[in-house]
Amino acid sequence: MAVAWVQRRVVAALLVLVAVQVFAGGGGGGRGGVSAFRLWPKKRTRKDTEGAGNDDTQQLLMGGADYMDGQIIPSSAVAAVNAYASSSVSARECFSGKLPSGMYYFGAAVYNSELIIGGGFTPTEKLSFSDDDSPMLSMNAVNHTFKWTGSSWKVWNQFNVTKGEAHLAVLNGELYSLGSCGRQTRMCLEKYNSSKANEGWHLTKNQLPSVLSFPGVIADEKDSSLFVVGGVQNKHTTRVVAQYSASTDKWFALPPMNIARKSPAVAILGNRLCAVGGVQSTLQYSSRTLYMALRSAECMFLSAPSAGWSLLPLLPEARGSATAFVASNKLYVAGGVHVPLHWLSNRKEDDDLQATVLEVERRPYVSKLDSLDTASSWTNASDSSRLFISSSTLVTVPTKLYSQLCT
Ligand SMILES: *[C@@H]1O[C@H](CO)[C@@H](O)[C@H](O)[C@H]1NC(C)=O
Ligand SMILES: *[C@@H]1O[C@H](CO)[C@@H](O)[C@H](O)[C@H]1NC(C)=O
Ligand SMILES: *[C@@H]1O[C@H](CO)[C@@H](O)[C@H](O)[C@H]1NC(C)=O
Ligand SMILES: *[C@@H]1O[C@H](CO)[C@@H](O)[C@H](O)[C@H]1NC(C)=O
C-alpha cells in the first residue's frame, strides 16, 4: 500500500535525482534522519558464508523484497543457491513451505538442528515513528519467531522486544538475536538457551553502547563473535565497526571502515571481514538527507585489525541491500537495488506525510570476485534468476535438513 502515498509532485522532483543515481532516504528538517528503509537484512554467519557447498551444508536464500510498479513486495520464496557446480551461480525455488505472510528482514539460524526464523517486519498501512521522530515505512516490527516443523511453520518463542532488522546466530550453543529494538534507533541483543527454555529470550547484560541502526551484521561462530558493520548513527551513515564477544559478553570497537556504509552486505572470507556496497548519506537536498548506493567494497584482517580496512576493486554496479556469501574462497554478492525508496517530509504533525516508492533499479543477479589479493575484478556470475532480489536472508542448513526442506 506504500504506493498509495505517492505524491506525484515529489516523484517528479526526485526523478531528476534518480537520473544522477541518488536517492533520498530518512528525514530532514532536523528531525528524522534515520532512513525509513527497513528492508535490509544481514543475517550471515561464518558458517553461512564459508562452510556451504561441502557435503555437510547447503545454502538457502530466504525471503527478501522485490519492487514492482512502485510497490515493495515481500517475497515468501525460499531458494537453494548453488555456487559450486558450475561457473555461474544458480538458484532454484525449493521448499513448499512458504514463509509466514509477508515477513521480511527477518533473521534465520539452525539451532539444535531446527530451522528458526524470527523478527523482521510485516507491512501495515499505518505510519509509525522511531525515537527520533523519523518516519518508518508502513511496517510493524514483530517479536515472533517460527520453527520449521517439517511440514509447516510453528510459532516459537517470542522475543523479549520487537525486532526489525533481525539477525539470528548460534554462539557457544546459545541462540542470539540482534535487531532494532521496537521503534528505537538502536540495536538490542538477546539470547535463548534451550537448556533453560523456561527463561525464554532475555536481553544480554551488555548492549551495544551506541545508537545505531541498519548495520551489516555477521557472526563468526568459530570465534563466538558478532560483527556489527557500519549503519546509521545520529542521522549519518557511519564507518564504525564493533565486535561482540559472546564468551565474555563484551563489546569492542574495531577500526572504522574507509567508507561509511548503511546496510553493507557482509561476509567473512578466510580471516577477513568484508563489507560490500551499501548506501551512504551524501548530500542534502531541500533539507533532506540523500543516500547513494555504493560500488566500493573493503575488507579487514581479523587477525590484524590494527592494519585497518583495505579497499577491494569497485563493483560493476552500485548495490544497496544486497546479500554477500563466500563459496570456494570466492566472494559473491547477490541481489540488491540501486534506488530503493524515498522518504520525504517527516514531520510528525503532517497528516499527509509524504513518502514515495519509486521505480528502482534492481540487481537480480550475482557478482563474483575471484580473489581478494590480486588485481582481480568482479564478474557476472548468475543465471539472472529473479530469485536474487534485495534483502534476502542467507542461511546455511545441514544437508539432512536441506533434503527435508528442498525437494
Ligand atoms: C509481542 O507482540 C504482541 C503483538 O504485537 C504483543 O501483544 C506482545 O505483548 C508482544 N510480546 C512481547 C514479549 O513483547
Ligand atoms: C524480558 O527480559 C526480562 C529481563 O531478562 C525478564 O524479566 C522478562 O520477563 C522478559 N520478558 C519476556 C516477555 O520475555
Ligand atoms: C545453557 O544452559 C545450561 C543449563 O543451565 C548451562 O549448563 C549451559 O552452560 C548454558 N549455556 C551457555 C552457553 O551458557
Ligand atoms: C550482469 O548480468 C545482468 C543479468 O544478465 C545484466 O543485466 C547486467 O547488465 C550484467 N552486468 C554487467 C556489469 O555485465
UniProtKB/TrEMBL annotation:
Alphabetically sorted, this entry's keywords are: Kelch repeat, Repeat, Signal
* Entry keyword Repeat: yes
According to the record, the signal peptide region is: 1-24
This protein's name: Uncharacterized protein
The answer to whether keyword Ribosomal protein applies is no
